[in-house]
Amino acid sequence: MNELFGVSMTVIAAVCVALTAVIFLVMAYIAWRNPVMFKLGLRNIPRRKAQSTLIIIGLMLSTLIMSAAFGTGDTLTSSFGSEVYSILGETDEWISWDAQEHPAPREAQVIPIATVDEWKQQLAGDPDIEAIVPMQRETLPVYNTRTRLNEPSARIVSFRGDDAAALGGLRDTGGAPVALSGNGIAVNEDLAEQIDARVGDTLQLFYQGQPVEFTVVAIVPSNVLSGAVDPFAMRGGTVDFATFVQLTGRGDVADSVLVSNVGGPRDGLQRSDVVTERLERLLEGTPYRVVSLKKDLVNTAELVGSAFTAVFVVFGLFSIAAGILLIFLIFVMLAAERKPEIGMARAVGAKRRQVVESFLAEGMGYDLGSALVGLFAGMGVTLLMVRVIEHFGGDSLGLNLSVQFTLRSMVTAFCLGVIATFLVILIASWRASRINITAAIRDLPESNPIDPEASTWRGYYRAAINGIAAFSLPVGFAFFLFGPPGMALGLPLALVGLITPWFYVLRNADFAAPRSRRTGEPLPRWPWLVGLFVPVLGWVLVLPWYAIAILLVRLTRDRKPSALPRWLAVAALLVWPLAFVVAMLQNWRVRVPWTAATAIAFGIAGVALTYGGLDRDSSFFFLAGVSTLFLWAAVTLRYFGISERLAFTTTSVLLLALWYVPSSWLERVTGPLNGDIEMFFLSGIVMVTCGVFIVVYNADIILPALAGIGSRFGRIMPAIKTAVAYPLTSRFRTGMTMAMMGLIVFSLVMMSTINENFSALFLSDEARGGFDVVGLVNENNPIDDLEAALERGGVDTSRIEAVGVARVANQEEVEVENRDGYVNTDEGEIAPFSRIKVFGVDQGFLAAQELKLKFRAAGYDTDEAIWAALAAQPNLALLPADATVAQQGFGGGNNQRLRLKPLADGFEPFTLDLRDPGTGEVVTVTVIGQLKESADTFFAIGSPDFSTGLLVREDTLQRAFPAARGEMFFLKLAPGTDSEEFAKTVEAALVQASADSLEALLQEQQRQQTGFLLVFQGFMGLGLIVGIAALAVIASRAVVERRQQIGMLRAIGYQRSMVALSFLLESAFIAVSGILLGYVLGLSLAWVLFTTGEFFDESESVDFIVPWLQLTVIAAIAFGASMVMTVLPARSASRVPVAEALRYE
Amino acid sequence: MQVQALRGVTLQVRKGEMVAVMGPSGCGKTTLLNCFSGLDEFDSGTVLVAGHDIAHMPDDRKTEFRAREMGFVFQTYNLLPVLTAVENVELPLIVSGTRPRVAREMALAALERVGLRDRAHQRPAQLSGGQRQRVTIARALVNHPSIVWADEPTGALDSQTAREIMDLFVELNAAEQQTCVIVTHDPKVAACCHRTIQMADGLIVREDSREAMQAVAALGGGE
Q1: Which helix (H) or strand (E) holds A231?
Q2: What single string gives the DSSP state of each residue in A348-394?
Q3: What is the DSSP letter of A591?
Q4: Percent of chain A scoring above 90 in pLDDT
């Protein structure tokens, strides 16, 4: 895997390693400069072993998620890559007819062998080209006369032995050379397995319905020389060139030419660009084209790996977010536990910085341990996930998965874990260091110093100025979203933002004090050290700006105006870089209300994001911006004295309501907005945050009701009372834990619900379309009368109630133009012709089908009217469900196959031109309806390439694409007939056709989908570990914190069981609140998305389904695990010795 | 290493009596109180409260007995910060199975007795030290216990508030014949009691009368 989100993994790895190195350097510097505080921090780790273990488990999750995501990506990249090398072997490039530039009938799309020989002569001395091998290919049915097993679509190839010698020639599975002559055939391993072929077996190859006998002379590996090119169609074989030419009667021509570069299967790839360029020059003026086959496939392997990694990282974001909350919570709690110690250390002279350093030392101890554990745990999770993927979806991937971890990915995962944890610990440590020493020593609640400017406009102005100044860098970057005007606005802000962090570092230092108060203490030296010793980043981003900040502070510290000029005060609010000037001229000893300041900065960034979102039609930026504005509103209301409950509840309810507004409504105001999978993450974060605010600020309202219920249980009422009272008193930790549980449950509920509804839509019984068996006929051996052929083959046709046939023009044989410009959406950026498969169904199909339509054109009131029209008139067409562009918003993709806007019931019929690329002939059809999603599945599931297509009548297809040879058939069986068994008898009777039970195919599809869902759910469910660990940490901490209170409760008559129950109920209250929050928000959002046309064009085709069983299992696991983890702390609380606890301080 | 905190201590407290336990730090005063009240285990001996041998009761029964028959007052109040004054006071009643409405009435009555009826719905953090200790006393008395155990009830209070608290104890003792055992360092507190047990090294070494302690207190002892 070389890229993630479009950024080179090498760059990501280099940045991560550099940042980690900086972190280690900083820690080494702290250990050297401040060994006492460093040791003080480290020695805390073994103090409470159980707690430390819990912390490490909680902290490891970010690394675990990253390493599992990267490991899965590496595995897929490597497995796919190995498959490519194994199949292509020495072949690097591929020359074939360029049908796009040079339309021609299919039989004319060949390369004369004489032409290839000329090329060989011209390239004879080429230092980069090793071999040129012309090859003829056909897809033929093969029948083993000994085993009576057949394969309807074997890829049979043939080439001249001398040509292939340079590629190492054809070799059997033991490595011995294979010589082909006469009617000898070498069968590849995949075909041999299918028809149980052995050397000496007689095989029949069918061409134009005529069997020709061949003898198996060897079993060879499945690769390009034995017909295997497509990982999904590997069965094939090789026959002698002269014999094959005679069989097909096509003469000395090739369908394609293989080119091998100098070097082995892997090394040759490096010459691919040079060789491709040379071949392109050679082919100039000819109707042929060269494809860098191996390079393209290896790149595809990279893309698959990167895409999977990206998906896992996005899905892992919930867990990572929960993990970050946990890290913060843990360190806030550790700080609370150590408050008296910190207070004492501060009292005896430790500076805030030293307290931060001490915490950092402790945090890094946990961090390193957890990153290492997380790395290996992530590797273990990868192994597990790959096994599950292989079990459920191995066949559909067409790969042999072998687990692979690259050093680069693992180092990156480790570093990302270290960096994320370090940053959170840094913030938490900074928060912990800002304590009131007296309150800390006496372990009293923190009291804020009286701020005379609190809740005044003057104070708010101070907050605004400092907020803008301090956060200039991120706010400036947010403006970059505007495009060029935003750059003009954002660049000065971002430049100011490079200085302001240093200004705020210096602002509280002795250096910045007015002359009368300065003691001569030296400037902070660490920025110089970081600047000097961190190459490039330090030189560019630290040194010059720190120097400028020093200069500015030096200039302004003794030159403060008694009052700010009014014009400057106003201008600073309008021209934001001026805010920094005002911040410098203010009295630095007056306290800055940082909460309000941060919220204002967020608010401004929110405006930028909102505007940027509208400008770029991005749902993500727009809704992220608007959500940020709500946060600003809540903090502002709070600043001006509105109660917390009112401020946070009101804004949260309003913001939640906004998220529930269907995008079609929103887009009436905002214009079109595009969203993708990232919206899933954003919605979770914002909605769960709102939900948590609403619950923690309002749960006390429902307390009397709970107490009332508790009173019915008599003696456990006190346990309930204390269980609910404590969490609501510690809103911060309760809210954080609830958010962690809520986030994960939200993601799991959304995923299960959406999956269930998609399954119902695509894989329901409707997808059988009224038929029971689907068959695929070999294109070289058409069947004229299916029922007669079945009868001849001994099939009991009395069990068949109806037969439908669909001729198929594959997408490379078809060009479709949405000619009348009816609903073009791309403003002509895309080529006028689209390539899409076309199914031409016969009258038998039309009479027997039970397919459903999503939309009908004006004049057709029912599905029956549509089918009747199709049966009666030629040149009518139905669109597949996936042909239209889904509406924009949450998960809407851009399906531009036909560049059509979404349709609606009663749309005006419109025309499409079907053009035959071979002849250039055009047939115009009129679209009168669009099939439902289940009908898409019906056609896709029976097709080898799993694709959907236009539906027309058979005669229309034959007129439009006379050369199309694809054929499918559908059988409707008498009730009670076993479709799987019947399909087997059909397959045995028709050597040139495969047959499958539609029910079995749907079940297999379901099984694979369930498997992938399981992998994703399991991966996302890892986040539950965080929530559960948080509950356990909180409960353990509560036992320590409340030891004396437990003693008192026991003294006044609480039984041990009641104390334990109280702790369990407390955890249960938090867990249930979090789970319910995730449940309600996840389900309701899924419902809104499904029923308001977010995923689909209209709601009418969707019935919302709630997967109660899955959801119950998720809730039970989350709740059960939470309770199990709380049992130990609850038990230890109940066993607290009463007298000792009462003495505890 | 094993430390013998109490060695062969015998003490009898009559109903309606107020007894103070004094002695230097580490002499075993609090351990004596904890053992007598059933909060702590002891190796040998018997504790009879209102005729019940709590030494040999299983933990659950002992806990129930404490809820019904004993009240506790501690130096550090030990109120639940998350509950209001009245909720703190009614807790022992609720755990002993009293119906919530009755428990609430009794708790309010107990707060009335200690002069804090108007502060019933405030949380401990909103009360002064003296008020918190009154809530603790109300909680100790709410179930009309046979005996109230008080461990340094005035230890965290200023002298004026300490006097008010002791006046309250005396008043309750006089009015309701409430039996109290008070562990204290303060001779003024001891002077409010009928008699004072002096301890040293885990042993009861002397018993002083109220008058003797009043004399000590008058001389400024313990200040």
Answers
A1: none
A2: TT--HHHHHHHHHHHHHHHHHHHHHHHHHHHHHHHHHHHHHHHHHHH
A3: P
A4: 19
pLDDT category of residue A1058 using cuts at 50, 70 and 90 = confident
Q: Looking at chain B, which residue has its C-alpha nearest residue A711?
A: B100
The size of the A-B interface in CB pairs under 8 A is 90
Query: Both tokens of residue A1121?
Result: 């695990």
Neighbours of A165 (CB within 10 A): 13
Instruction: Name the more confident of A1120 and A533.
Output: A1120
Q: Which residue in the set A707, A715, A1051 is minimally distant from B72, CB to CB?
A: A1051
Q: Which residue has the tokens 């409010």?
A: B192
Q: Is the Cα dihedral A1062, A1067, A1068, A1072 positive or negative?
A: positive
The answer to whether A787 touches A844, Cβ cutoff 8 Å, is no
Chain A interface includes B3 (CB < 8 A): no
Which residue from A minimizes the CA distance to B89?
Answer: A1052
- Lookup result for tokens 């595809």: A300
User: pTM value?
Assistant: 0.76
B-interface mutation test, from A730, A1044, A1069, A1142, most B Cβ less than 10 A away:
A1142
* Cα–Cα distance for residue pair A68/B163, rounded to 1 Å: 68
B109 touches chain A (CB under 8 A): no
> CB distance from B100 to chain A under 8 Å?
yes
Q: What is the pLDDT of residues A538-548, one digit of tens each?
A: 888 888 999 99
SS3 string of A699-716?
HHHHHHHHHHHHHHCHHH
A1142 contacts chain B (CB < 8 A): yes
Q: Do B39 and A1048 touch (CB under 8 A)?
A: no
Best-predicted range by mean pLDDT among A175-189, A483-497, A777-791, B34-48?
A175-189
The distance of A482 to chain B (nearest Cα, Å) reads: 50
Dump pLDDT digits (tens) for B17-39.
999 999 888 888 888 888 888 88
Using a CB-CB distance cutoff of 8 angstroms, which residues of chain A are in contact with residue B76?
1044, 1145
Cβ contact, residue pair A1045, B37, below 8 Å: no
Alpha-carbon distance of A1137 to A1142, in angstroms, equals: 9
Q: What is the structure's pLDDT at A847?
A: 93
pLDDT for A888 beyond 50: no
Task: Go through chain B and tell me how many residues it has.
Answer: 223
The pLDDT tens digits of the residues spanning A550-566 come to: 999 888 888 888 788 88
Tokens linked to A394: 């191995």
* Residue B5, helix vs strand vs coil: coil
Q: In terms of Cα–Cα distance, which of A605, A307, A380 is closest to A481? A: A605
Pick the closest to residue A896 from A881, A907, A886 (CA basis). Answer: A886
Which of A681, A46, A24, A582 lies closest to A320 in space, CA to CA?
A681
Closest-CA residue in chain B for A1053? B67
Average pLDDT, chain A: 83
List the single residue in A with minimal CA-CA distance to B123: A729
Cα of A128 vs its chain's centroid, Å: 40
Closest CB to B78: pick one of A1058, A1137, A1142.
Answer: A1142
Tell me the backbone φ, ψ of residue A889, rounded to 5 degrees: 135, -125
- What are the pLDDT digits (tens) for A63-86? 888 888 888 888 888 888 888 888
CB-CB under 8 Å, B76 with A1044: yes
Q: Which residue of A has its CA nearest to B37?
A: A1051
Q: Between A718, A1055, A1139, which is nearest B34 by CB?
A: A1139
Q: Is the interface score ipTM higher than 0.85?
A: no
| pLDDT computed for residue A819 by the predictor | 65
**pLDDT at residue A397 in the model:** 60
A716 at the B interface (CB within 8 A)? no
A945 — pLDDT class (breaks 50, 70, 90): confident
Candidates A714, A1142, A1145; nearest CB to B39:
A1142
The per-residue pLDDT for range B52-71, each reduced to its tens digit, is 888 888 877 888 888 888 88
